[in-house]
Amino acid sequence: MEITLNHYLAVAATLFVIGLMGVMMRRNLIIIYMSLEMMLQAANLTLVAFSRFNGHLDGQVFVFFVITVAAAEVAVGLALIVALFRLRQTTQVDNLTTLKF
Amino acid sequence: MDQYIAWFLLLAPLAASVTILLRLYSPNGAIFASVGSASLCFLIALGIAWGGIVAPTPWMWISLPGSNESPGLEIEIGMIFDALSKGMLLIVTGVGLLVHIFSIGYMAQDPGRARFFGGLSIFMFSMTGIVVSTNLIEMFFFWEGVGLSSYLLIGFWFTKESAAAAANKAFVCNRLADFGFMIGILTYWILMGTVSVKPIDLSNSYHQNAVSLPRVVSILTPEEIAAHTGTAISVRHIGGVNLTSPLLLTIMVLGLFGGCVGKSAMFPFHVWLPDAMEGPTPVSALIHAATMVAAGVYMLCRVYPLLLLSTFGLEFIACIGCFTAIFAALIAVQQNDIKRILAYSTLSQLGYMVMAVGCGGPDAAMFHLTTHAFFKALLFLAAGSVIHALHEEQDIWKMGGLDKKIPLTYWTFLLGMLALIGCPPFSGFFSKDYILADAHAFHPAFYWVGVATAFLTAFYMTRLVVVAFLGSARSKAAEHPHESPLVMTIPLIILAVLSVGSGLWGFWSSDSGMKNFYHNWAINLFSDTDPIPNNGHFITVPEINTGIELGIPFAAVFFGALLSYYLYLDRTTDPLHIRLLARKFYVDELYQRRLVRGQQLLAGLLNWIDAWILDGLILRGGAYISVGFGEVFRLFQTGSLQTYAFIFTLGGVLLIYFTLFAH
Amino acid sequence: MNSFSPLIALLLIPLGAILFIIAKAPARMTALVASGLNLAISLLLLLDYPAAQGSYAWEMNFPWVNLQGLPPIRLHFGVDGISLPLVFLTAIVTAAAIAISPGNIRRSSEYYCYLLLMSLGAMGAFISLDIFFFYIFHEFALIPTFLLIGIWGAQNRQFASFQVTIYLMAGSLILLAGLVALIMTLPPEARTFDMIALQSYLNDHPIAVATQNLIFPLLLVGFGILVGLFPFHSWAPPGYASAPPAAAMLHAGILKKFAIYGMIRIAIPMVHDGFEAWLPVLLALLVGNFLYAGLITLAQKELPTMIGFSSIMHMGYLFLGVACWNTIGVSGAVVLMVAHGLSAALLFGLSGEITQRAGENRFAEMGGLAERAPTLAVLFSFASMAAMGVPGLANFAGEVMVFFGSYAAILPVLGPGYAIIAIYGTVLTAIFQLRAIKSIFYGLMPARYEPRAAVAATAGSEGTPAAPGMTDTSALAEHAPYVLLILASLVIGFMPFLLLHIVEPSVSLLPHLK
Amino acid sequence: MIPASDIAYFAPELILTIWAMGLLLAEAFFSLEPRTITSGALAGILACFLVTALFDATPTLFWSDMCKWDGAAKFFHLFFLAVAALVIWMGDEVQEPVSHGRGEFVVLPLFTTVGLMLLAATNDFMLLFISLELATISFYILVAYQRRNLTALEAGVKYLILGGLSSAFLVMGIAYLFGITGSTRFDAIFNWLHGHHALQTGVSFGMLLVLTGVGFKIATVPFHSWAPDVYEGAPNSITAFLSVGSKAGGLIILMRLVLGIFDTESAAAVWIPVLSVGAIASLLLGNLSAIPQRNLKRMLGYSSIGHTGFILVAVIGASVSLAASPYPTDAATGQIAVTVYLVSYLLATFTAFIVLAVLERRLPGLEIHHLAGLSQRSPLLAAAFALSLVSLAGIPPLSGFIAKALVVLVAWNRGLYTLLFFTIFAAVAALYYYLGPIKAMYWSEPLDETPIRLNRATSGVLTALIVLLIVTGFWAQSISALVNGSNLSPNATPAAPVALIQH
Question: pLDDT over 70 for what percent of chain D?
Fold first, then answer.
């Protein structure tokens, strides 16, 4: 069978939802963060697919930007997580709830 | 210049009262100021009576333009000196002056006497104001003023709960009645576009509205009236409510009468007057016997042409007056407090006067008002002298045997009593019989009730005299009383002379004399306008019939007195026990239980609703609900990262679902 | 026109006084002097006002703000026969309120600043001819009132201060919505905050009736809340009961009148069709004021709450006079505004005095005060008589005019019935006022008259020993402020024409008069 | 006037970036006093401010149409610069100095500001994303700057994760918009939407995802959850920065999107209901759940959610494609209202947070009851805090009133009666918690009597802010000056409001 745009979109959407689920369900900050990245990649996939089928490159350019920004974000994020780990000797998010109500 | 003199009629007592109120004088200085102002009033009144002093130029008190839907409002403060006001003015200032003098002796020991005389001055100010008022609002102004002074003086001994209560009762009763009075005034204004009571305006108003109606106690529709008189009658509006003129006129008359009902303590509102006896006796004499309570009658006579416009109104007035007369007389039979007996007799005499007005005899009413002012003031002052002599003893069963010990007081009291019961040739005889004759001409029923009242009057007054003065002393105090000083007895003597003479004066001549004086005033009410209005009986002119005029009433009085004399001579206790009368027909109890308590219950209920439903449930409820929501909302803020992520996602999903897929 | 007018002084003087007080000037003295100056000025204005044509006098009109999206806001002051009496009222009540405030009150400088701010707000509202300033000047007073009740208030000041402030804020926000709606429904070029311009424009191009029926209720509810129109009155009794006397005097005496003034100036003339449509509702509500509030007043067992409710009830007369919208009724309402301002100020001030002296505010526990404090008795009786509309005091003149006006006006549903209800209101007033006099001053003094210091302390000033308070500590001189108010009331009561010849011409200039 | 060349319009961002880099290097090589860095940064901001002020606001596209310069851009440039100045000054002068790397703590806000400024001028989704992330990422660092402190870290992590989530949604949305319209240019998308009247599901899907991302920035319900926690955990200056700067950044984007791109009949039919729901929800939740709060920063966090609601009402009112709007010029008033609201919000919020920052060092904590008797201890602080709260509550004569009045005005004019009702209700409910601290400060008994002394700079700035609060309220002309440099003379004929954002 011939692969259409919708297939790509479907895969991307699935990735997105998986990432979302990960963010909501996993307890380990690192993994949550990975899931976030996965969601971003899903978006990237969508972009690429669209620009491929629309036939111009803006989307792909955008993807590079996204990847770059994501990298920066990861750097900051991991730094934070490390700092947190120093303080609590764990990266679990359970009872990370001193601020509430 | 001389046109300003008249103002001092009002200014002198006002100045006196204000300065006394500001405590500018020592007590005796206050007495001097007050008595001085009273005598000045009397002099001015004399000047006015002899025409030396003319009415001053009025000043405009309120003047507002009208519009297409309401007449303009023109209220001026001025003075009107006609026969009516001249006569009344003399009575008020004359009796007032005498009472002032009497009080000098009577209140000599009281620490608060300055306050007392201040109150008297306020009263003189307001009462003279009522007499000379040129319009109803001005009259209302002073009307409330006398109410105020009476309130202050009844509550003079304010540490006595009963006195304070009586004062409140008097004021509230009057307020309730003035409620009607104000409505009457408003209706008069709507109908005639003026509130003036100058005779000329009144007769104009009369001629605008007079339609010869048959004397039936009913309201006719415009059609019926047109059928009856052949003249179409104008339909008037108040506040956009269409009302046929007769109904409006009746409302007006009843409203105005309402004022009289309060001041003159007619039947449903009579309850305050006996309680008013809590005040010092001179006050009872001046305010609650001679003048203020008569103000209602005076007002009726003043607006008499308006009363004529509603036959139903007139008959209603006559009925109320007649009923009050007999009703009060009955109660008086079983009272034991000397002042209360006199108070109830005042009520029944006022009933006579009001009945007279209702029967179309304002002249008779004024005549009786005058004589009554003299002898009732006399009676009260004499009673005061008795009480003074017995050290505040008021129960007639604790008196007795006073005729020898305080002869002057006894004799003056006796004269007054004879005048009151209408024993010829004392003044009361003439005035009362004049009223009875009018009543007879109007409708026999009123006449017979009047006669019965005369009988009762003779009965209870004789009872009073016999029990209180004759026989032997029945209490320590009564054994050696002391005669009052001259300053108190001289007014008694003067009043006694007046009570005796005022009726006889000019009895034989047809133009001089008090009776004719008032009669001329009455028949001249319309003389300035032609033609003299409808079918003659706007003033009842009784036909002379000796049987009715003299015989029957005299017989009634004679037998009443005789009966009571033999019944009560040398008694130590009351042989009659009529609980219903002793308890005043339970009217007070009725009011207390039904009206006052009912209103209070309603107030309590509303208060509860306001506190718990409106304020509590709705307002604070609303506030608490908002706060509660706040508490609920913050629960979503669990602090757990993933709850937040979930809320975030859920929000997004819901938005997308409802916008894209929900339809 | 573009010259400065003496009116501005009425604002600058209190402002200056506040600055002085902040700069550590003796608070009470400064405030007294400032209010005295204002009183003098307003009196001069009253005498100097060219009454004949009833137009605006001492106008000053400067462009002020011209913000994109907002209609131009102008600094436009001026008074006519309707606002001038209120200016005078503000001045005299402020002077009295400051004069009766104890000198040794704690944090006195703040206290007097807030008082001055309140009166500044009222004054500004009455002299502004620009709706923007009319509104925000009134709002000036909101926070000072909150602080006055909160800091110097009596028993449950906590609750009262919050309720009053939030309720009034709600009212003024609804009012704001109404005013915005009124102005913003006009085409952009016609929009203006200037009352006169707006009025003249609306005379030529009235708003569509449907829109008016939408706008008027906003204005009615807004003003109604501010004045305590039934059923929006719940803030008043507790608020006044726990406010310090001076604050209650200022609020009940002056600030409330702002709403009635707004009805006369804005709501009824500018949204007249809406007014006509909603008249039955308005009338029903004011009947509620008369009967509901009147009867509730009967049931009160404490002096301050009784006076609070009675002041609500008396708003009925004002609303009735305005609702007639004929010359007689409206003039009556204006006169009555002044009269009620004076009497309410008297009553609140005196009740504060009594409560503090007796250390007690429950009728059942009081009595016989007249023996020990005759002057107080006389003053309170005067105040009550004024409230009862006894002739000779100002209220009578105003009430009579309202009666006549409403009896003649063609009002829906009950017709003359409203006048009759109003007259019955005077009976009710007589009942509860006399009962108050009786239970406070008459009879014998309760044996155990040991004033509870707690109540005494909260009654405004600290440390005044309540026990000697029972006696009449003060000569007439010390009661000068009350005497001042009473005299003003007497003068108007005996010679209402003095006020009327100022009021009537301006009133008869109002549009749509019946 | 600077000639309208690409590079010229890009000057503010360039200046600031270079300046920030320079400061970092300088600090690295010859270790400067933090104080000097601060004054350096402030100087840079001042320079940038002056330059920006020189531009006129005529709409122009530049940088190969990726950026757009117009009234909105100019206003927000100046706005963000002012915010940055206050933040940096607070960070060094007022609050507890950070334990380490004070240089970065001063310089990082400059980068955030550059991001926000770019955001204000963006005309392309790519630039939008990048500038947004530039701002956000530096925020991640700033929020969690006290990395020894657990609450700060927790706040940082929460902000990080949720921020990442939102940017994922954003990118996904952008992807769909790009995919269907075939461009990332705002104007191109706008023209495309005008071309196709029937809105495709994909477009509205993308639009909604983008709105989700933006909703996170402006903390509107239901994307608000982070706000209270982060506000409470972050340092005061940064909290103020978040609640004013980041919110304003989100708002300018929101306006650029809904008023610039999506303001067509068909699109408006989608986003107006969505935003209305968001507005009402924010009004209710923000103001109601602020009532029971005891911690002042947290309370202000909730209240800022509420304020988002108020602003959203104005944004909706600014849409030209609203049904009931007899007078089209009123649409522009909506945008004015947003800007005015932001200005007054800026003044009030910073006053409040400066006071809090001062108190944090003096008081045992920032609960309401810790304020007891503040009016005795330091009248200035008490007055400043009270006035800022009163202004936030929207009581005259403070600038908050003008803002609220404008919102009410817009709501009525544009026939948003439901929103009007909730606006008024929320304003009243808000009073409930704004009055609480005032009560505590003015008539609760003080815990300890010791007066609080302020250094001259702080009291000077506070006084200036108070004056501004009052002046902007009483003499709103000054706001109009701040908003759109329109001439200060009130004599000028009332100009019909000019839309800051046009297509």
Answer: 93
Taking the alpha carbons at both ends of chain C, their separation in whole angstroms is: 32
**Chain B interface includes A100 (CB < 8 A):** yes
- ∠ CA B145-B150-B153, nearest 5°, is 125
Give the N- to C-terminal CA distance of chain B in Å, as an integer: 96
Compute CA C154 distance to the chain's CA centroid, rounded to the nearest angstrom. 21
- Residue B429 contacts residue B422 (beta carbons within 8 Å): yes
Helices D247-255 and D71-89 cross at an angle (nearest 10°) of: 170
- Interface with chain D: mutation pick from A15, A63, A80, A90, highest number of D CBs within 10 Å: A80
Q: Which CATH number fits domain A5-95: 3.30.230.10, 1.10.287.3510, 2.60.40.420, 3.20.20.150?
A: 1.10.287.3510
Q: Give chain D positions within 8 Å (CB) of B636.
A: 225
Angle at B81 between CA B367 and CA B352, to 5 degrees: 20
**What are the DSSP calls for A12-64, one per residue?**
HHHHHHHHHHHHHH--BHHHHHHHHHHHHHHHHHHHHHHHHHHT-THHHHHHH
Q: What does the angle CA C194 – CA D324 – CA D406 come to, to the nearest 5 degrees?
A: 40
Residues D235, D56: Cα–Cα separation, whole Å: 36
3-state secondary structure of C370: helix
Contact B627 D284 (CB under 8 A): no
Predicted confidence pLDDT, tens digits, chain C (514 residues): 557 788 999 999 999 999 999 898 899 999 999 999 999 999 999 999 988 888 898 999 888 887 777 888 888 999 999 999 999 999 999 999 999 988 888 888 999 999 999 999 999 999 999 999 999 999 888 889 999 999 998 878 888 899 999 999 999 999 999 999 999 888 888 889 999 999 999 999 999 999 999 999 999 999 999 999 988 999 999 899 899 999 999 999 999 999 999 999 999 999 999 999 999 999 999 999 999 999 999 999 999 999 999 999 999 999 999 999 999 999 999 999 999 999 999 999 999 888 887 778 888 888 888 877 888 888 999 999 999 999 989 999 999 999 999 988 878 778 788 999 999 999 999 999 999 999 988 888 776 554 444 444 444 444 444 444 445 555 555 788 999 999 999 999 999 999 999 999 999 999 998 8
Report domain extents, chain A. Answer: 5-95
Amino acid symbol at D270: V
Nearest to B164 among C438, C504, C513 (CB): C438
Inter-helix orientation angle B427-442/B552-568, to 10°: 130
User: Is the confidence at residue D45, as pLDDT, over 60?
Assistant: yes
**Preferred mutation among D154, D162, D291, D298 to probe B, highest tally of B CBs within 10 A:** D291
Q: What is the pLDDT of residue D361?
A: 86
**Percent helix, strand and coil across chain C, each rounded to 5?**
75, 5, 25
Rounded distance, CA D402 to CA C172, Å?
14
Could you say which of D140, D167, D182 has the minimum Cβ distance to residue A54? Answer: D182
Does the pLDDT at position A8 exceed 60? yes
**Minimum distance, in Å, between the CA of residue D32 and any CA atom of chain B:** 39
Residues of D in contact with C146 (CB under 8 A): 435, 438
Set of chain C residues whose Cβ sits within 8 Å of the Cβ of B238: 407-408, 415-416
Taking alpha carbons only, the member of B261, B348, B246, B245 closest to residue B300 is B261
Please give, rounded to a whole number of angstroms, the shortest distance from the CA of A99 to a CA of chain B. Answer: 6
Kindly provide the ipTM of the predicted complex, given to two decimals.
0.89
Whole-number Å distance between alpha carbons of C159 and C242: 9
Looking at CA atoms only, how far is residue B612 from chain D in angstroms?
22
Angle at B236 between CA B230 and CA B238, to 5 degrees: 160
Task: Say which DSSP state D96 is in.
Answer: P
